[in-house]
Write a structure and sequence with these properties.
CATH architecture of the largest domain in chain A: 3-Layer(aba) Sandwich
Low-confidence stretches of chain A: 1-11, 88-108
Number of domains of chain A: 3
Largest interface: A-B, 54 and 54 residues
Order of helices and strands of chain A: HHHEEEHHEHEHEEEEHEEEHHHEEHEEEH
Distance between the termini of chain A: 34 Å
Mean pLDDT of chain A: 88
Helix content of chain A: 25-40%
Oligomer: homodimer
Largest sheet of chain A: 7 strands, mixed
Strand content of chain A: 5-15%
Chain lengths: 468, 468
């Protein structure tokens, strides 16, 4: 079974990477296994021998081997050395149920293909443009801009956001009513604390959504109650005595629909009638491909709707910049919940303000919109050709799509994906535990996630795990 | 009384500033009043006339006038137009007690001289070096660094901090036990929530400190109880059944002493005996001028002491970057208090990591130490010459000094400072409301605050308000 292995015979692509030599070696070995250049069962040279061949420290090689063993690409056994794992066979559906019989899919360290929803293509983050904006911002900022700041955020950014949100999303925004926060989760955390301090008990949410949001509200002492979901999306008729409602009106996450006009009105009417608070999570409002995006719900009634937005999808989550546009009077309570301290870095805030006002943001979003639209079109076309029983649902928007599958095929597809090193999510994980919804087999595919060079490989890997 | 006023006769120094034309005009007018070029009682031209003279919109001039009226530099009265206030006379001590008799000191918009403690010289923030570090950091970071991150903060920064804190402050740090937060206040907020969740009730604090810290703890539901303070500093003998203690051991804020060796030991012994938590606020540990700074208290017992540090004094508060080095087992509770979300921008974290590892941080701190040391020396020398009854106290360290004044002179000095546009703090505002301490007349002077070009003017203004 063991095959001789000559280092010189294999192109390891050992290029310097950001992570240093060890990661470069790990990546190169992983790639060699993944592509089959190192076949299953192949015995690797000892770490000492490979280190000598490559001119590296022995520990570097030993560490790289250890990483890959941990990830499941290699196996190490006393006496038989380090070998490439025998892991290319996709187990049949249901095999994972036989405890002890089926080998466990590898722990995903970094997946080979990443179609998990929730992030934009980070490799396309406009690094050079961002640095230029940072330089311009720092060149013009008075030194006082580096002091402790307004707990609402820098006025430059709040002013730029007010203009942008009004123009791009129809938000009725005033810089004095905008709070800069570290993303929508941070904003929700603050709103949860405000609601709790007001004596609120329950927040209506959608049947499908992000469990991290539900957990943040629960941590604030609030019960989340899911609204019914039907083919027309979230149904607000069960809004009664809840204290607030959290919605994704422009692009339901993850199901992908737009809240119907009548339902938008019904939500706002409920808020006016009861004094309930509407929280609009507008996470990807910039990305609509077939028409102008529907305007923000907040535009209908700025007195009852909190508009929550973020740079996480349009630029990068790592910026940790989001914003709340608050109804009159709510700012003071939110700042109290925040401890009246400023928490977002001034430099990033000034840079984003410069990015917005200089037009760099619009240019970046236009380019990103084109890239994501092409990916979505390619995905839909490939599905029609290779997986006709699978249907892409939702509007042409955002960075993800829900693929409806034939009944009973979600779990097998997820297991196959795990074995292929394809990161992808089942719809099930986005279903609220108390939701009463029909059983839907579906995958949530983040086509925005991979870098350009990895996109076609990821699409190929996706098609390979879908039911034919 | 009214004097004719020809615009062309006065050099308004109307230069473009970061804040636009309106602020430029406001600053120029304020400066003209302050320096006496516009004498008390002078009647200003109508906003319409001045706007025509200067080629500005009338509203711009009217707004600038309104700002200066609000600040007390100008007075506006129906029928008699806008005049320069009659406000150059420093009122005698006690005059403020005669309600209605003494004119109120102006609301400080931006003070003419700023010696308020709490900020470093922001004009010396190393903008070019920081941008270079940002460029290097962005050039080498993998794109995944821009994704949602570890709620503890970027591993690159935690690793660089562990090395730096060990080397510079004797902290026993492990990257896995470091939490990056948005400054010490943010860290205290999280620790307050953790303590409260554990059922804690009281936190011992120092008799002198920051009320923003006490308020953050109170907002978490904790009672702050001040420890006695004597000539040897904070006395830990009254540490009994409190749940935690918050201290500034290296450089008591604001009093300026170092916690005595015996008292350091006593604090740690208390923590070991009772399981109480010690929180060490090491806000300016980098800046000691006469000798090596005393090592961090955390080094004595990393299992019971939280070490809290910040870039706010060494670089700039606007970065909103601080850190907690946590005892084993505490991280999970702190992350839960944080909602398990990451809140600090990745780019600033990567840049600070690069700044630390490249040596730029050390170079910057050395230069800053020299600058602040010179200012402190100049201040002490000037006091000896011009105000022999005033004594600088505390060790030669940090960015501020406490000036002990003859009894009964703190309030008059503060009033005189307000009238001169000199921002300065009385010791009184740093005294815990429940502290039982002897009455001390003193000023807290932030000699680190002004930019270099404004330092000698600020020192001069300070000497002018001190009792002779």
């Amino acid at each position: 079974m063991a095959k001789p292995w000559a280092t010189s015979g294999i192109d390891l692509h050992l290029e310097p990477t950001g992570g240093g030599v060890r990661r470069g070696l790990t990546d190169a070995l992983r790639e060699a296994v993944r592509t089959g250049r190192l076949a299953p069962g192949t015995r690797l040279p000892s770490s000492r021998a490979l280190a000598t061949d490559l001119g590296l420290a022995r520990n570097t090689v030993a560490d790289a081997y250890a990483d890959l063993v941990a990830e499941g690409w290699l196996t190490a056994r006393q006496g038989s050395g380090t070998r490439v794992s025998d892991r290319t066979v996709v187990p049949p559906a249901g095999a994972a149920g036989a405890v002890g019989a089926a080998p466990r899919p590898r722990e995903p360290g970094r997946p080979t293909h990443n179609l998990a929803p929730g992030t934009p293509d980070l490799a396309s983050f406009p690094r050079a443009e961002w640095l230029k904006a940072a330089r311009r911002a720092l060149a013009t900022a008075p030194y006082q801009a580096l002091d402790y700041g307004d707990p609402r955020g820098r006025v430059e950014l709040r002013t730029a956001l007010a203009e942008y949100l009004s123009r791009a999303r129809g938000v009725r925004a005033d810089p004095d009513r905008i709070l800069v926060c570290a993303g929508i989760s941070h904003g929700l955390r603050l709103l949860g604390a405000v609601l709790r301090a007001r004596g609120a008990r329950t927040v209506a949410v959608e049947s499908y959504g992000l469990d991290v949001h539900w957990k943040l509200l629960a941590a604030a002492g609030l019960r989340t109650v899911p609204l019914p979901f039907d083919e027309r999306g979230t149904d607000p008729r069960e809004l009664t005595d809840q204290d607030a409602v959290l919605l994704t009106p422009a692009h339901q996450f993850p199901m992908g629909g737009t809240l119907h006009r009548d339902r938008r009105s019904a939500v706002v009417e409920w808020a006016r009638r009861t004094g309930g608070l509407v929280v609009e999570d507008d996470y990807d409002g910039e990305f609509r491909y077939d028409r102008q995006p529907v305007g923000a719900l907040q535009g209908l009634d700025p007195d009852h709707v909190v508009h929550a937005g973020t740079a996480s999808k349009s630029l990068a989550p790592g910026l940790r910049l989001g914003w709340l546009v608050l109804p009159p009077g709510l700012m003071e309570e939110v700042l109290a919940a925040k401890g009246d301290i400023d928490t977002c870095g001034a430099l990033d805030q000034l840079t984003l303000a410069e990015f917005l006002t200089s037009g760099a943001y619009d240019r970046h979003v236009r380019a990103a919109r084109l890239r994501y639209r092409r990916r979505r079109d390619a995905l839909v076309a490939e599905l029609a050709r290779r997986a006709p029983r699978v249907h892409a649902t939702g509007i042409a928007a955002g960075l993800h799509v829900v693929l409806r599958l034939p009944p009973g095929t979600e779990q097998p597809a997820l297991r196959a994906a795990a074995w292929q090193g394809l990161a992808i999510h089942g719809l099930h994980r986005y279903q609220h535990p108390d939701a009463v919804v029909e059983r839907r087999d579906a995958l949530v595919v983040g086509y925005g996630t991979p870098p350009d060079h990895a996109w076609s490989g990821a699409l190929e890997a996706l098609c390979a795990v879908l039911p034919e």
